[in-house]
Amino acid sequence: IRLDGEIPSATNPPSGCVFHTRCPRKIGPICEQQEPPLSEAQPGHSIRCHIPYAELARLQRAVVIEPA
Fold first, then answer.
1. At CA 58, angle to CA 8 and CA 39, rounded to 5?
2. Radius of gyration over alpha carbons of the chain, in Å?
3. Higher confidence at residue 64 or residue 30?
4. How far apart are CA 55 and CA 68, in angstroms?
5. pLDDT value at position 46?
6. How confident is the model over 12-45, as pLDDT tens digits?
7. Which of 26, 28, 56, 59 is surrounded by the fewest CB atoms within 10 Å?
8. Does residue 30 contact residue 37 with C-beta atoms inside 8 Å?
């Protein structure tokens, strides 16, 4: 996922998911209010997101397949 915009302050990060201010997959207030759980996306690679990894992977493939 490409994150555009300004990186938030490390000393004063946003509430909830620290990426919600720049994330194109933001799904609503849950992203602003609750830190996402840490989950293993693949062996040795963990992510924090309210969207399950399988859904993120499906969405990413859909974007790659669509012509520009």
1. 55
2. 13
3. 30
4. 22
5. 95
6. 999 999 999 999 999 999 999 999 999 999 899 9
7. 28
8. no
Structure tokens at 37: 């759980």
Classified as helix, coil or strand, 20 is: coil
All residues at 6 or more sequence positions from 57 whose CB lies less than 8 Å from its CB, including other chains: none
Whether residue 12 is contained in a domain is answered as no
Task: Read off φ and ψ for residue 16, nearest 5 degrees.
Answer: 70, -135
Asked if 19 and 3 touch (Cβ cutoff 8 Å), the reply is: yes
Residue 54 within any structural domain of the chain: yes
Q: Is residue 48 part of a domain?
A: yes
Domain count, the chain: 1
Percent of the chain at pLDDT > 90 equals: 59
CA dist 6 and 51 (Å) reads 23
